[in-house]
Amino acid sequence: MRMRWLVWQVMPWLGLAVVLLISTRTTTVVGAGPAQRNLVLGKLDQQHSFGQVFVAEQLYLSGIRVLLVPPPGERDDLVTLRLGVVAAGLPDLAVVSLPVHALARQGMTTFAFEPLHLRMTPHSVTTTLQLTLEAPTLPPAYGITVIAGADSYAGGHLLVNGVARTQFDLAFQLLYQQRWLDQVLPISRLAEGRPGLLGWPPFYALLVYGYLYVLGRIVMCCWYGLW
Amino acid sequence: MQHRQVRPGLVLLLAFLHGLLYLAIVPPWQNFDETGHFEYVRSMALNGEQHAQAERLTRHEIADSMYRFRFWSAGVRPDLFSPEGPQVGISQRVHPPMYYLLAALPVRGTQYLSIETQLYVARLVSLGFYMLTVLVAWQLGRLVAPDQPLLQTTVLLLLIMTPAFANMMTAVNNDVLVNFSMACVLLGCVYLIRDGLRPWSLVLVALSLIVAIGSKRTAVVGIVPVALTLLWTVYRESIRWHVWVTVISVVLLVGGCGAFEYAPAVGSEGTWHLFQARPWLVELDQAYLRLQVDHVIQSLSDWERSRQVYPSLIYILFTSFWMHFGWGHVRMGTGWERAMLGVVGVATIGLVRQVLWRQQPLALAQRRWILLAVVTVAAAWVAAIMRLHPLPPPGTWMYIPRGRYMHLALLPTLWLLVLGYNGLVPRRWRRYSLSVLVLFFMLLDLAAWAVTLINFYYRS
Questions:
Q1: Of the candidates B340, B457, B324, which has an alpha carbon nearest to the alpha carbon of residue B403?
Q2: In chain B, which residues have their Cβ closer than 8 Å to the Cβ of A208?
Q3: Which residue of A has its CA nearest to B11?
Q4: How many alpha carbons lie under 13 Å from residue B415 in its C-beta half-sphere?
Q5: How far is A163 from chain B (nearest CA, A)?
Q6: Interface test with B, best of A215, A221, A223 (most B CBs within 10 A)
Q7: Backbone conformation region of residue B210, classed left if phi is above 0, alpha if psi is from -120 to 50, else beta
């Protein structure tokens, strides 16, 4: 009897808490990127910069991973990743700098920034973006090896010193911030641009939960009392 | 087994949450003619201001919002600077103002907030009518089948979970008030059938019918069940078939002679005689009905052309009645359409089986309610089909009416559906047949909002 009371009284609130948790907590997911990363393209230093044009696919871009091989030693020169729209003359959307010694020696280096809200609309001009890697103080003798691959990414192309090299793509991955529940129910997109409570993503999760719970209660009531 | 009813508060809560789900999921301006209906509401909220400046500003705000919410396809941009304001859809000012006056009340209090906030406030008014409709259906069920809580609950759940109806009842649209008023009309009719001519029942019927007709011309259909009910309140006993024949003949004769005349018509080919609407009907037609009665009569006689259009008309009416969303362009797919056709077909078999075998004795009031439901549904279908006429000249665009015009008869339709399943199987298996029906609607509804609408608007 006590167990049954516990189930009926506590479980709904526990469910509510779980729904609230999974609709507010965020996670990082990896977006599209080139399939190939088998070419040594060149050295990133004070004389050479590299870049990549790409299309953001989700609402919140929170970082970019790039495959770089740092030189031996513990240098403090900064490697800067600039993120902006393709059109010239517009300010950068994000700028992240890491010292050379902080670059990953195995695998990709993550340049993380505050999540950028990108409206995924056909009208938007901000979904086609460009990343640029610079190392303005790094001498050529200590250049960072940049890895790329043959053209396998449909959303853009590689840039070397600002010049397009359409037959190549930088070895990169886009990182997006998502709510846990977004994978099942796109609550972030549902709330996008809505006024008041409707603009709060967890509202949709709680609404669906509330509806299913009440429906379940009625069905149970009918099952035991009527059907 | 001791039957107990589901608490009405719980059902209302379900209706509220379900309606809110549709209200929230469907993006702004993505319901039938919602732009035009809201423009009307906004003008009422601004104290009925209809001068060009206020209207242009409203259209400007709506068009801006439509653009931000990706209403148009890529590359299409509204002309915000045109002198007459951007085009945001067909004006709905041809409709009587009843619904718009009611929806404007809370919108007036939010007129300085964003246009989307005002739209959602107007949608909340519709949600209120949705809940009231469910409440009326609950009371109607208690009157019609007081000892059958299973039937009552099944009808309520089906009413709540009919996807196209929930979608329509949470949109800014005068059909919302028509649907609610018609539910009240039917409730009043049931009171009259059960208790005879009582003042309060009569007031309920009259008031509801006035509100319905004062909201939209489609509600004229409501006169049919009311007329039938009034006949039944006079004849409290079973009516024999020869009385029916006499009454129907008299009604057709008096109605026909009163509304039409065989009069001479003058044209380029001379003078000839034909059936024409009498002046009072022509006047009513021009002021309210907007049917072009004379043209409709001529169009109806063109059976060759009508015959070609009717199959697709009936298909669209049927599918959009149950499962079309947005501006009619969001659909659930042929699989669900065929399944729905199967569900209705099985219910029809059940109804026919009950009529032929007379499985259980019903009280006179119950039999009359069933007949009233049949007549109301038939009248709604005939009226919807009539909206196709007059047919436009061959080769020109033709407006095909949608099933939302028949939502005013959803409640009797659902009763017939449930009664069909109830009569399909022996008594001891009935709860299973009704369970299957409810389960189907639960799945249909879940697929509608969780798959069709979300995929269309948020995953494409």
A1: B324
A2: 21, 450
A3: A218
A4: 28
A5: 29
A6: A215
A7: alpha
| Cβ-contact A190, B24 below 8 angstroms | yes
ipTM: 0.88
Closest listed residue to residue B180, CA positions, set B192, B190, B168: B168
- Look at B4 and A190 and tell me if their CB atoms are within 8 Å: no
Q: Which amino acid is at B105?
A: L
Dmax (CA) for chain B in angstroms is: 77
Chain A residues within an 8 Å CB radius of B71: none
Pick from B457, B145, B183, B222: nearest CA to A191? B457
Longest dimension (CA), chain A: 83
CA nearest B451 in A: which residue? A185
Using alpha carbons, list the distances in angstroms from residue A112 to A62, A70, A168, B159. 6, 18, 24, 51
**R_g of chain B computed on alpha carbons:** 23
Contacts of B311 by beta carbon, 8 Å cutoff, 6+ apart: none
What gap in Å lies between CA B294 and CA A189, rounded to an integer? 51
* H helices, E strands: number in chain B: 19, 4
**Predicted confidence pLDDT, tens digits, chain B (460 residues):** 345 567 889 999 999 999 999 999 999 999 999 999 999 999 999 876 566 777 888 888 999 999 888 888 877 788 877 777 788 888 888 888 999 999 999 999 998 999 999 999 999 999 999 999 999 999 999 999 998 888 999 999 999 999 999 999 999 999 999 999 999 999 999 999 999 999 999 999 999 999 999 999 889 999 999 999 998 998 888 778 888 888 888 888 888 888 888 777 666 666 767 677 888 888 888 777 777 777 777 777 777 778 888 899 999 999 999 999 999 899 999 999 999 999 999 999 999 988 877 666 788 899 999 999 999 999 999 999 988 888 887 778 888 889 999 999 999 999 999 999 988 888 888 888 899 999 999 999 999 999 999 999 998 6
Please state the separation of Cα B317 from the chain's center in Å: 11
Domain ranges of chain B: 254-301
Q: Does B4 touch chain A (CB under 8 A)?
A: yes
Q: Name the closest residue on chain A to residue B113, using Cα atoms.
A: A195
Cα–Cα distance between A146 and A51 in angstroms, integer?
10
Q: Determine which of B2, B71, B153, B430 to mutate to test the interface with A (most A C-beta atoms within 10 Å).
A: B153
**Which residue of chain B comes nearest to A214, CA vs CA?**
B14
Question: Are A207 and B459 a contacting pair at CB < 8 A?
Answer: no
Q: Which of B21, B70, B458 sits opposite A186 (nearest CB)?
A: B458
* Segment holding B243, helix H or strand E: helix B241-259
Q: Radius of gyration (Cα) for chain A, nearest Å? A: 24
Q: How far apart are CA B82 and CA B89, in angstroms?
A: 15
